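Next comes this protein:
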Amino acid sequence: MNTDRRDLAGRPVIVGAGIAGLMTALELAPEPVVLLSASALGGEASSPLAQGGLAAAVGSDDTPELHLADTLAAGDGLCDEAIVRRMVEAAPAAMEKLERLGVGFDRAPDGSIALGLEAAHSRRRIVHAGGDATGRELVRALVAAVRRTPSITVLEGFAARRLIVEDGDIAGVLAVGPEGAVTLATGRVVLATGGVGGLFRDTTNPLGCFGQGLALAARAGAELADLEFVQFHPTALDTPVRPMRLVSEAVRGEGAVLVDETGRRFLADLPGAELATRDAVARGVFRHLARGHKVFLDTRACLGSRFAARFPAIDAFCREAGIDPALDPIPVRPAAHYHMGGVAVDAEGRSSVPGLWACGEVASTGLHGANRLASNSLTEAVVGAGWAADSIRNTPSRHSTQAETAQASIRPDASPVRGIVSQALGVLRDGDGLREAASALLPLATGAGADADPAAVGLMMAVAALGREESRGAHSRTDYPTRSAVARRSKLTLGAALKIAAKLDLTPLARSA
């Protein structure tokens, strides 16, 4: 491939080929677009790993208003109600669109869409495909649709390294492909790169998902929002395998209970018990493990021999680990699963940098607030892709006429920062740990090593968490255990985070050492 792709100049460039990226490309058709996929199309993303499904009020006993109320409650005061309302009202039509694109949703015996129940939902509204393989089925169908759409140019094996900015506007993308550095001149870029789970030792995300899109946006000067809010899934399969296998919340929706090594159901007194909000369940499991107990998800009474038919993928990887869910309780522990924070965007997916949009998990729209309602994420990726595409379509093409001479950075490596981030930004946090993490990450983030971008993302998350002196949703600080009376979203740029970290006073840490 030639270094300067003039034949692609001016086309919107979509960075990331999970569900959000695939849908954005399809929504832009027939306008010519470029889709960058760091691996083979449909691989190496979090999307194929998604088990839970898509939340949509399509049941006869459900309404968008009920979906709205559940989302606002889970978001713990930080949701943007206008965004939530727009999303839940669009969700049913999005399911119809996916079916037209070839997604095969699970059906009840009467032919209606089969609906599952997950934590903090007041109705059965989780739409599945292939049982517990919803993400894989969506990616399969969307990849096939992209392959047959002539307006989409797919560049497989191409990873974006930097966004080119001229006079404050996006002017191109610097990427690395099989033949080296490539410059794509464009004034319209969409980030659809997923989350930050790869910054943690215990995660259900691919280890390469360290927040690449956040690093790209931050180094281009974009504002980021709510970076402190990381959702830890309470029931990841507790084995040495990384990334960790997810035991879907839908299993608890079918009646599975959490027990310890004595068989005691230790969360029975928690309001909502096993179907409380994810943050509450994750904290309960984490604290029980910290007391020296083991934790198991017990499906024997509610599913027994039916487990394999209802959850075939989970059954398969449990058996790989020597566990038969029909006969054995499943060992579980919390793992980093989803990032509510991201690139701050408006209702059309536009960031604070002209020419830059974000969609899916990498974006912070205000939908999820402090704690995502289960299965709203895939719905957001599908619906939000349409919003971003409409905005991009109505934005005039602009790109640089100058060749970019900067060299692509080396391949990022998150492994040096995982220990720091895991220790400070886990299920429970405190100010001393966050200050120590920010100070440790600062020289890495400002350096030129392979860990610079992962460290920059971790640094911004630590600074945001340090600034939120309360416990709200998925952000729980042992030194500030109560929720503030005033709800506020956090906003941060990389420049601001670097200045804050450089001024941190570590004297309290020295005194306590």
Observations:
- The CA atoms of residues 432 and 510 lie 10 Å apart.
- The longest helix spans residues 81-100.
- DSSP finds 15 helices and 19 strands in the chain.
